Backbone:
């Protein structure tokens, strides 16, 4: 039997907290159904408060927490939280930094550390993701990259593993995270069967179709914010880097350096993402022919645009429209 802890801490997202535990309880039920003679559940799931408290209460929900840690912990799950602004996220990260030795000790004892959504900020704050790769919720990806440049961010990934640390993308990606753990503990076949029971698409390995230049936490460089505003208003126009730099009283080199520091991208790369965002919106809300759509966002060659769109979203424009058209 695998021993799992779901971590409780102030501001934890209640749906993630209980949802993670429920996935493994459903796994126990499926295993019991498949082998009625089995007397022991496959997973023991318990809640543990980071402070060691015996309970946690929020919004009318009370969670009973164990106060004595089991001798063996196969996986520690870190749910996401309600912090989506810089100051709120800093409070969560400060809390986890204060316990970094505990997390490091768990890792050294062979415990898998699995963080969902913006729980990746908490795990990264312990330093255990340094030098490795991770994903996070797409709408905080730029901020994550600014805070943790030593972590190789794979924002398009739904689930990412680096050594004993696993991270998941936005919101309900914790379901794929749990299925990944179950796949490692009990095999791909059992995990796939459970995915069908939960009505979760096991092949959803990417959050790339959902990525956007619209982020919840913005940078503080007002000059670059002005450049971004200009690009939004002129996204279909050809980009001349030197003219753009002169418009905002900077050299081309300074513009690139400051733009990349603020956004993680060069101006051209960011403009391409902006154009893809616009294309996604048009595909979601109109039946505009692809030839017309391509011209409207600043591209002339439909074939090149189609390849670029697939590179950014991992879907063809046609498949994207079929999936997201409102």
Residues:
């Amino acid at each position: 039997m695998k021993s799992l802890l779901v971590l409780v801490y102030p501001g934890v997202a209640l749906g993630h907290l209980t949802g993670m535990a429920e996935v493994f309880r459903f796994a126990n039920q499926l295993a019991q159904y498949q082998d009625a003679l089995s007397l022991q559940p496959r997973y023991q799931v318990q809640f543990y408060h980071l402070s060691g408290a015996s309970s946690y209460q929020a919004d009318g929900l009370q969670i009973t927490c164990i106060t004595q840690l089991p001798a063996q912990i196969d996986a520690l799950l870190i749910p996401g939280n309600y912090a989506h602004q810089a100051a709120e996220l800093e409070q969560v990260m400060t809390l986890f930094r204060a316990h970094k030795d505990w997390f490091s000790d768990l890792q050294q004892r062979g415990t898998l550390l699995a963080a969902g959504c913006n729980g990746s900020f908490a795990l990264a704050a312990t330093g255990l993701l340094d030098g490795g790769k991770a994903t996070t919720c797409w709408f905080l990806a730029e901020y994550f990259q600014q805070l943790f440049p030593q972590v190789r961010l794979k924002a398009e990934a739904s689930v990412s593993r680096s050594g004993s640390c696993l991270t998941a993308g936005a919101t309900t990606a914790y379901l794929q995270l749990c299925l990944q753990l179950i796949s490692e503990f009990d095999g791909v076949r059992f995990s796939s069967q459970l995915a069908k029971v939960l009505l979760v698409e096991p092949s959803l390995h990417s959050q790339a179709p959902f990525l956007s230049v619209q982020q919840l936490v913005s940078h503080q460089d007002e000059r670059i914010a002005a450049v971004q505003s200009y690009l939004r208003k002129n996204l279909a126009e050809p980009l001349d880097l030197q003219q753009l730099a002169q418009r905002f009283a900077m050299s081309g080199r300074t513009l690139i350096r400051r733009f990349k520091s603020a956004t993680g991208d060069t101006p051209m790369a960011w403009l391409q993402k902006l154009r893809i965002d616009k294309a996604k919106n048009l595909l979601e809300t109109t039946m505009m022919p692809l030839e017309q759509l391509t011209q409207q966002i600043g591209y002339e060659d439909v074939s090149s645009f189609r390849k670029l769109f697939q590179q950014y979203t991992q879907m063809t424009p046609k498949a994207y429209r079929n999936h997201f058209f409102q």
